[in-house]
Amino acid sequence: MKNKIRNITCIVALASLVAGCATNLTTPFDESAFQPYAGKGTSTITGQAFEKTNGGDVKFGAGNEVSLVPVTTYTTEMIQTWRRNSVFGPPQTNPQLQKYIRQVVADGNGNFEFQNVPAGNYYVVCPIFWKVPGEPLPTGAV
Predict the structure, then answer these.
(1) Alpha carbon distance 66, 64 (integer Å)
(2) What is the bridge-based pairing of β-strands 65-70 and 121-127?
(3) Nearest C-alpha neighbor of 45 from the set 102, 107, 83
(4) HSE-up of 48 (CA within 13 Å, CB side)?
(5) Pairing of strands 102-105, 65-70
(6) pLDDT (tens digit, 9 = 90+) per residue, 46-103?
């Protein structure tokens, strides 16, 4: 029987990637806060990464990396900083955090699945970029 995940917050990154944006956090990295997320669990998280544009079009995270980030005071400040600054840095900006982040690639429709996840609270992060005809791509987008 699979465990249920208590809470999932989905964040779709739409702005430019900023590699160092998590370096100015005031919350210290506490390894013990991440211990419940270490190793394998019995839960599965499935979803679809997409964003609806102001014009009503749907853009999928097809082929994009989806990251599952444990919710701790450290990662919450990191996410809040990204939202406040309207930029999203890759979750792997802190090498200590990297070992607790799980990553998969979304399929052609933006669908993703994380298997063997410990029960807990997670942020789901997936960058989605698209080019509007006549406008440049965001800084850092490939």
Answers:
(1) 6
(2) antiparallel
(3) 102
(4) 8
(5) antiparallel
(6) 999 999 988 899 999 999 999 999 999 999 998 888 777 765 555 546 788 989 999 9
**Cα(39)–Cα(122) distance, integer angstroms:** 15
Query: What residue ranges in the chain does DSSP mark as E strands?
Result: 7-13, 43-48, 50-52, 58-60, 65-70, 102-105, 111-117, 121-127
* Amino acid 117: pLDDT: 97
C-alpha distances in angstroms, 136 versus 12, 63, 72, 89, 103?
Answer: 20, 21, 36, 20, 28
Q: Model's pTM, two decimal places? A: 0.76
Extract the tokens encoding 124: 């789901």
Beta bridge partners of 60: 50
Given a contact cutoff of 8 angstroms between Cβ atoms, the answer to whether 70 and 116 are in contact is no
Q: For 112-122, what is the mean pLDDT?
A: 96
Note the pLDDT of residue 2. 46
pLDDT in the model for residue 23: 52
Token pair 């070992």: residue: 99
Helix (H, G, I), strand (E, B) or coil at 29: coil
Cα 21 to Cα 10, 38, 43, distances in angstroms = 19, 24, 31
